[in-house]
Amino acid sequence: MEEILSMDEAAARLKLTRSQLYEMTRSRARARQAVPIPFIRLGKTRRFRASALQQWLEQLEAASR
Q1: Cα–Cα distance, 9 to 27 (Å, whole number)
Q2: What residue numbers bound the domain in which 52 lies?
Q3: I need a surface site. Which of 34, 37, 46, 58 has the fewest CB within 10 A?
Q4: How many domains does the chain have?
């Protein structure tokens, strides 16, 4: 099974604060992002697949070239 990260774990991997990451997952913030951050909503919590975060970073890198 693939690694699923909590908000705190994902924020630590991305070197963001929890509040910065939370803001990036809000619907109005996602509408402004060229490549929205992928997450899974489980009830009121947000979880992140480690592989999806890696792909997201690669897409951001490609878009910034």
Answers
A1: 21
A2: 4-63
A3: 34
A4: 1
